[in-house]
Structure formats: structure tokens, C-alpha cells
Amino acid sequence: MKSPILSTQGLCLSVGKASRILCEDLNFSLHSGELVALLGRNGSGKTTLLKALAGIRTPESGRVSFNGESVGEISARRRAHLLALTLSSRQGDGVLSGEEFVALGRWPHTPWHGSLSDADRDLIQRALEITGTPSLASLSMSQLSDGERQKLGLARALAQETPILLLDEPLSHLDAPSRLYEIALLRRLASEENKAILFSCHDLDLAFHSADRLLVLLPGGAWFYGTPVEVASHTVCRETLGLAAAPWFRYGN
Amino acid sequence: MKFRRVAILLFALLALAFVLDLLSGSSSFGISEVVAALKAGPGSTLAAQEIIWEIRLPRVLAALLAGSVLAVSGFQMQTLFRNPLAGPYELGLSAGAGVGVACFLLLGWQGPSFLAQAGLLGAAMLGALAVMVLLVALAPLLRSPAALLLAGLLLSSGLGALIAAMQAFSGAEALQSFVNWTLGSMGGVTWGQLAWLTPVCVLGLIAASFGTKSLTALMLGEDEARTLGSRVKLTRMGTAACASILAAAVTAFCGPIAFIGLGMPHVARWVLGRTDPRALIPGSALLGAMGLLVCDALSQILIPGRVLPVNVVVSALGAPLALLLLLRYQRRSDS
């Protein structure tokens, strides 16, 4: 089997003074062309894990590796060519237009003065088109709904042109057609453009039916990593994700 | 292309404002007299040449520099604090610089003229940097833009009290010199002061230009800026230091000048139709310089035979603009 593009070895994460353990001894790997959903209850540490994987949050112990190289040994500049991270929190980018926001994805590729080349502009336009957001390009970010901002977040990550995409709840706030469009897009990016994608999500139907694997953060720092069939038949995962109490949820039976 | 046309227009308007300010003053000179005086060079005993070279040219050059760097400092603060209501005067940087100037002028820390100017500048920088350190520490605790603005006003008020206490213990001559400074004016700026002000402003503007790319990433928020490869801490510290030094340099030699730093970046956004720092740093500099030159010219000609402190004119025009910005921000927050 191919070596993973992103992996963790014995990763431990906790938060707060009381040291609430989010995950303990996490060993997980993400391969190119793979779409992995990160599941867990509110406050289970999905965003914190994504930040640790992106190298902007120091873990309590353990390490994160890109192609076998420790994240600590990779410069921030080179890391920006390897992975793109979008966070779901609303930042103070209200003064930017949609296009300027997406253009920030080209930041690691531009010279010191930050000017965009024609090739950069083409990539920005392509990212807007792929995500179905050209109509949002000229609008101010402050005028957009949360769902529209999420779409532009993905467009920005695509404009960054990295082999790894770490996406924090890219499907939240989206209407049903947009959710379906976006998950199909992620699936296509993984299979056709060979991108390694890890996305956190609360939509179990879409996660189970679209992702190759699921990483589930369980209470007390435990975790489970497996295929949707394996997760659906794992008792603690079923309880944590509330599958047992969701009669509408049909997966693997 | 539209952006290039607007830039050319702004440069032309700036040149016009420069000439207008050079022609404005209590003595009336025509363009030909001003040109002749400029051609003749400094050192003449003729009245026109002396007035143009010793009073007007330093004043106009100071307005050009002060307007541009105050607006850039304001833009940097607005981006740094992600607060559209931030400005060096409004958040207390000018008051901090004022404490430095007060220490210098009121406590009589004087020396040879050239070194005295350096001391004045250094004292103002220390004061402004101290306030900036406080603001950076307070900003995470004050989430709403209005709260940060209020904190700045409270800081200014506290520092004002400190200055008042120093005034109470100072001699009449020092007090008069300090009171003149508090009015805010480029009228008293000398060539000796320009020799300090110019390099600080030019270097500050160059540093600001080098920081534009990093400042752009910061607009995404610290976490995402870091994933873009930006060195966030360095950017924040560099921007804070640059904004403080620029505001302090102007405040040291021209006194506190309000609203240019707060308002001109917004005018630049409106005029240029752009929001990214690559356009807005030069845009704010151009419009800030133009705004202060026009206000300075107005301060010379509004009341015949009298010269108003430029801060009076800037405040009279800037206060309604700031109120409009506040209402606009409030409307956005409500929607």
C-alpha cells in the first residue's frame, strides 16, 4: 500500500486547565485520493485536531507527519504548499469581497509584494467556478450568509492548490442541494485530482455514504478509525454518534 | 485599468492640494511670486522668499508627511485590531506620545537643538509604544469595536490627567510651548524637525509597504493566516510598532491630529473600491496627505487675518465623518 501523505503517531490533545482529554494516542493516516470524514459530538475536539494536523496547534504529545517528515521540521511556508485548512469560525474578513477572500488562497504562491499573476487569477476563477460561487465574487463577505461563506472557504482552499485539504464543517449552514453538490465535489476532488481530504461533519448520512473512511472521536479521548461499515457496527461509535436512536439512519443493513 | 486611472487622478489632486496649501497663508502671494521665491532658493532676505522657505514649505511638507503616515498608521491599526473604528488618535496613541512630549517639554529635558528634536521624537515614540502594548494586551478582552474605542478614550483621558498634573508643576514658558503643541498644527515645524520627521516617515512607509502581504493574510484571522505560511506574531508586532512610530513621529512635531488616521482609510476604500492592503496602504497615504493639506489650507484662509490650528479644521470635518462611520458600522452589526 502507498505510504500516507499525512499521519499521526501517538497524538494526544487536551484543552483547558482541567485538561479535558480530546484524543489519546491517536494513530491515523490519510492517503492521497482518500476522502475521510471526522465525526464526533460537539466539543469532542474535531477543530482542535484539524489545527494540530495543520501544524498550528502543538499537541500535548505525539507527532504529525507529512510524507513521513515531522511537521516540526517543515517550515510554515512549505507547509502552506502542502495543506490548506478552512475553519468554520467567522473571522474578521468582513471588509473583503468574495474574490479577494478566495484570492488569499494564492498567498503562499505570490512574491513579497503579494501581486497576483494572470495564472493566479485563472486559478481563483477556476476555484470560484468549481464551487459554484462566481456570483459571490463581487459581494462583500459581510453581506454573505454563513453557507455562502462556507462555499467560498472551500474555494479559497482549492485556490491554494495543495495536495491535502483539511476542512472544518464545510457542509454546515448549507442548504440540501448545496450540501449534495459539495460532497459530490469533495468526492470528485479526491478521486479525480488525487487530493487527500479530511472534513469534519455532523451530517451522518452524507459522511457514511460518501467518505472512504471515518475517524470518530469518542468520549474520554478514545477514537475509532475505520470504514463506514466498521464504524456502523462499532457499539461505542453507534452510541456516541446516536445511530441507535436514529431509526431513519440506514447504513450497512 | 480603472485602478490606474484613479491612482493618476489622486496624484494630480495631491499636487493640486500641495500647491493650494503653499499659496495659503496670512501673506498673499501669487503663483508667480511663489515660483520665483522657490527658484531663488533659501537664505534670501526678501519677505516672500523668507516666508515661503522658512514658514510655508516646512509647513506644507510636514502636512504632506503627517497626513500620509497618520492615514497609514490608522489603516494598520484597523487591520491589526480588525476594528473599523481604530485610529492612532482615537485609541490613545497620540495621547501616549503626548505624555512623552509633555515629559520632554514640561520637565525641561532640553539639550542642543538637533539632539533635542531627537529626544522629543524618542520620548513621543516611547509613549505611543507603551499605549500600543497596552492596547494589544487589552484587545482580546474587548471584542466589540466600540469597546476598544471606549478603552482608547479612557486611556487618553487617564493620560490627559497625567499631563495636566505635569502642567501644574511646570514653568510659564514651558507651559506656553506645550499648550501650543497641544493645539495640533504644522505651522511651527522647522527644517530641523523635518530632518528627523522625513526619514522616520519615509522608512515607516517603506516598512508598511513591505508588510502589506502579511497584513493581508491577517485579515483571515490568526489561525488561517498561519496555515498560509504567514508569521503572525512577527506581523502583529511589526505592524503595531510601525503604526506607533509613525503616529508618534507626527504627534511629536505637529501635535495631536485627530480623524485623519480613522477616516482616511475608509475614504480610500470608498474611492478605490478595494479592500486589500496592497491598494489601501498607498491609497490611504495619498488621501491622508491630500486631506491634511486641504485642511491646512482651510485653516489658513477660513478666517482672514487669523490662522486656526489645523486640528480644529480636521476635527470639524472629521467628527461628522466618524459619526457616519459609527452609524454605518452599527447598521451592519444589526443586520
| Number of contiguous helices of chain B | 14
Structural class of chain A: alpha/beta
Q: In angstroms, what separates the terminal alpha carbons of chain B? A: 34 Å
Give the fraction of residues assigned to helices of chain A: 25-40%
What's the SSE pattern of chain B?
HHHHHHHHHHHHHH
Architecture per CATH nomenclature, i.e. the level-2 architecture of the domain at 6-90 and 163-241 in chain A: 3-Layer(aba) Sandwich
| Mean pLDDT over the full residue set of chain A | 90
Strand order of the largest sheet of chain A: 6-7-8-3-9-10
What is the strand tally of chain A?
10
Q: How can the largest sheet of chain B be summarized?
A: none
Supply the CATH architecture of chain B.
Orthogonal Bundle
Order of helices and strands of chain A: EEEHEEHEHHHEHEHEEHH
**Total count of domains of chain B:** 1
CATH class of chain B: Mainly Alpha
User: Which consecutive residue ranges of chain B, at least 5 long each, have pLDDT under 50?
Assistant: none
CATH class of the domain at 6-90 and 163-241 in chain A: Alpha Beta
Our estimate of the beta-strand percent of chain A is: 15-25%
Given the C-alpha coordinates, what overall shape of chain B results? Answer: globular
Distance between the termini of chain A: 29 Å
Low-confidence stretches of chain A: none
